[in-house]
Each structure stands twice: as structure tokens, then as C-alpha cells.
Amino acid sequence: MQKIKILPEEVINKIAAGEVIERPASVIKELVENSLDAQAKYITIELEDAGKKLIRVIDDGIGMSPADLKICIQRHATSKIQEFSDLEKLQTFGFRGEALSSIASVSKIRIVSKTDSELAGWEIISEGGKIISDHEAGHSKGTTVEVNEIFFNTPARKKFLKSDITEQSHIIKTIEELALVNFSVGFILKIDKKIYFTLPPAKKIDDRIIDILGDKIYGNLIQIFEEHRYIKIFGFVSRIESSQANKNIQYFFVNSRPVTSRLLSQALYEAFRDSLPIGRHPMAIILIDINPKFIDVNVHPTKRIIKFSDERTVYEIITQTIKKHLTKQPSPVLTIKDSSLKTEITSEKNYVVYAPKPEQENLGFSIIREKISEEKEHEGTFEEFSVLGQIHNTYILLNTPEGLTIVDQHAANERVLYEKFLNENSAYKIQELLIPHTLELAPHECEILKNHIKAINLLGFETSEFGLNTIIFKSYPAILGELKNLNDFFKEFITLLIDELLDTTKKTIEPKEKIIRSACRAAVKAHDTLSVEEMKKLIIDLKKCNQPLCCPHGRPTMIGITISELEKKFQRK
Ligand code: ADP
Ligand code: MG
Predict the structure, then answer these.
(1) What is the rounded distance in angstroms from the CA atom of residue 284 to the CA atom of residue 290?
(2) pTM
(3) CATH homologous superfamily of domain 9-199?
């Protein structure tokens, strides 16, 4: 029975055209996707000379009948769609019917296949796209595609191939991606006749992640999940303290298809924006399931690029989902309570959260509500920490049930102020100055600020420019508390702000955010020596934050040494 048909002309004309075979890795991608489309349970991939000499993909999928084999390497021959509207409900990787024909035209290809209904298998051999042999051959149910001497007849393209190491790394990355998302399928990769890896069929993606990336990386990931009307997001992102120096561990999938997407990447970085230092990168494995009606996979021949019909919504949902889960992660050094309780805690000042009592520990968190007065809160009724003191006017030492926690008071203070700004939203209270404060700047600095005076004033400042090189402040946001050295504060604020506004790596950050960050940083520099009460208050405020673990610029607010680490260091055991 013949399932494969040549697409009609009018459908062909609507499909994104172009070359899909650039290098051995593209061959592997197409062949493995075909095996997955054929519902293979196990796929073996073999390479010789980084795929330049041989690529062989063996699967146990549904196979092809002799009639299908004879037609499968023709252009636009596909069993996956028949008319253009089929794209709206596409469930397969392939649909253009061009991969096998493109591969066949630039290599010597042998395909052997058998379906369940056929007694024997069938084999075709082609060179440069012409079938030179076509006969019965032994094969179990499934398909073997063997691609020999890629680009043998197109020397110019062969010349463009990179070193074996580079080509091989592209191949491995390609298999990695497909294997991650198709975790229930087993994969074996053999390189130059030796087994490179075996990935047994897995029940959960978690097991596949461990098999591919290792359990150390897996341990640094937190799971994310969200379901909306037409979109479902599932996956993993790194804990904020486990950022990376490069972007190597970032995988995006849309309906199981590995994609490269600026939109998704920007959404990921937006979620991490105030949690990562510049130059550090999050890890991410993000799987999006979306009704095919709302995406277009037909924008690029390799289908690596897709288009969402509602980009804004997708961006927002992804950012919010990641953010939500990031703030839920518990601190390894300071017991942070479940974030769903936070809103109550901030709005109900009289309630205090206590550390878990031993018998309640298995609940994950515990909360004992007890009305106590504000003064009592300052007397240190918290059981989770006591302040041991401050060193170098910079670090606060805390005794916690886990061990010793060291808090960077500037980073902590910055985080607290920053979240106060975010929570206040509008109508910022102002702290009026008795005498307006003037600041002299270079004319070009004034010029940069001019465009942002309105935004600055919306946050509780009353600022105006005065002449070519002077700006005047009549107030500052009351959130910042009592500022001791106004001159230092305003100078620092404006310098930081100008730096942020000019920083080209921060183009995507809104001016409002830059103003808030600069104001918070400048304000905390003014407070150095803290009384024990001030330290306690700071830690209590920090614990109420949505993201207490780092400052708005991404620096950590605290580090910890556990009792068992101390015991190890002092060789107590
Ligand atoms: P597409 O995947 O876009 O349909 P291809 O050129 O990749 O186009 O493949 C052409 C057709 O050959 C497929 O539609 C499918 O019917 C058949 N085919 C290719 N590879 C396999 C395989 N491994 N197992 C079963 N059928 C296959
Ligand atoms: Mg295909």
C-alpha cells in the first residue's frame, strides 16, 4: 500500500522553501525526526568521520512499503500532509517531503525498510538522487537509512564543513535536544564503531535530563509549570545561585520541536533579570505545548524558527511562570517561608512566622499565627536567627538552625528597598528637603537626564533641571528612609543612573527600573554602622521579600556555612 504522495503544486508553493541540509548534523536531525514520526521506540545512530563518511540511523518504527520506498526520495513526497490546512493540526516533525530528497541528491543513500504487513523488507540504493538498485532485502520491522559520502557531488559545500570536532559537536547537540524531549524513546549513539552513549527509554523527562546532563546539573534545577487556556509550560530553570558562564544549557521546545527563539530567550532573561549578575546565564529546559493553530512552523525550512501568533502573551506567561517558581525556591542557608504566605505576612504586620518546630518539619514549612505587637517583633522573638554582630561595617552574622549565615547588608538593604518600590506601585510618598539640593553635572550628563526627569519625578523625587549643567532636588522618595549624607546620596544616585542609562548591555531594561535600582543602591551606601535592632529589622524585611537571595543587580545577599560543613572543617567526625 502506498501512503506517500507527491504534494500538489499549490501546496508546494505555500511551503517555506530552502535548503535544509547544511552539514552532517542536519542529516541526523531529519533522519531522527523521521524515525520519531514513524513512532520508533529505539533509535540507533552511527557515525564515521564525524558523519562525513557515514551516517546510519536505524529505527524500529512503522517502516515503509516497497511502493513508498520507491517514491520517498522524490521531492515533495510525504505521507504527513495532503493539503495546506493540515498544517493547522500537524502532529509530526516533518511535512515538507523534502528531507530525504535533499539528502539523497547530495550523497549515496541506502534505505532498507519493512512494515508489519509485509513479509520481507525492501531496499533502495541511490546515488545523487537516482535510484540505482531496488530489490527485496532482509530487515526487521522498521527502517535503516544509510547516508554515505555526504556532498560527494558538491565539492564546494563539502569545503564549507568544519573540523571533525566541530561537526561532531553539532551532531551531539542535535541528538541531545531531540533525546531530551523524546525521553520515552531509547537512543544509542555510536561514533566510529564505539558506543558513545546509550539513553534507555525513560518514564520521566527528569531521568533523561540526568542521563544527558548529569545529576549534579539536575540538582541545580527547579521545576516550572503553568497551564493556560491554549498554552502549557513545563520544564526546568537553574536556581539563581547556579548560574552559568555561558548559554550552553538552554533548550527550548515548542510542541516537542527544538527551536531557537529570540522571544523565548528574552522571556527567560527577563524572568532572571534582577536575579543574575551581568555576564552570567541561566540554565533552562523549557517545553511549551501550544495549540498548533497559534503557531506557524512554516516560516523557515529547517523549522527551527517558529512564529507565535500572540507573542506578547507567550512572553508574559513564560516570564511570570519562571519568576513565580524562582521566588518559591528555599534558601539553603536561611529558612524562607512558602511564598504563598508572603502576601498575608506583608499585609498583616501583626502576624509572625516562626521556624518549623521539629515535629512539624515534614510539612515543608510551618506557620504559627500569633498576634504580637510591633515592639515585640523588634525584641527578637524570631526563632530562626539571632544576630551575632557585624563585621567591617558590611557583613551581618546570624546564628541560624542550619549554621552560620552571613548577610551582605548593602545587598540585603538594596533588595528590601527595591521590593518596597515595586510593591508601592504608584503614589510614592515624598520626603521633602528643607533646603533644595543642587548638583552640578557635565552638560552631556544633564542632556541624558533631561529625557528622564518625568520618570524620576514619578517615583517620589521632585527634580528639575536648572541651566545647562545643574539639577535641583526638592525631595526624595520616603521609601528610602532617613538619608544621612544627602550630598553623597544624590551624587551617587545620578552617577549610577547615568551609567545604567548609557550601558548598552541593559537596553531592554526600562528606565523606571534603572532609576529605582540606582536610588536603592545609592541609599544603602549611606547607612553603614547598624545597631543590632537595625540589623534585625533588615533581616526581617529581607525575609519578607519575594526574592530574598540576591540584590536587584543579581549579587547574592547571603551565604551560609552549615553546621556539618563546620564539623567537617574542624574534623569533628
Ligand atoms: P517529511 O518527513 O517532510 O514527510 P521526508 O523527505 O523526511 O519528508 O520523508 C518522506 C517520507 O518518507 C515521509 O513522509 C515518510 O512517509 C517516509 N519516511 C521517511 N523516513 C521514514 C522512517 N524512518 N520510517 C518510516 N517512514 C519514513
Ligand atoms: Mg522528514
Answers:
(1) 18
(2) 0.71
(3) Histidine kinase-like ATPase, C-terminal domain (3.30.565.10)
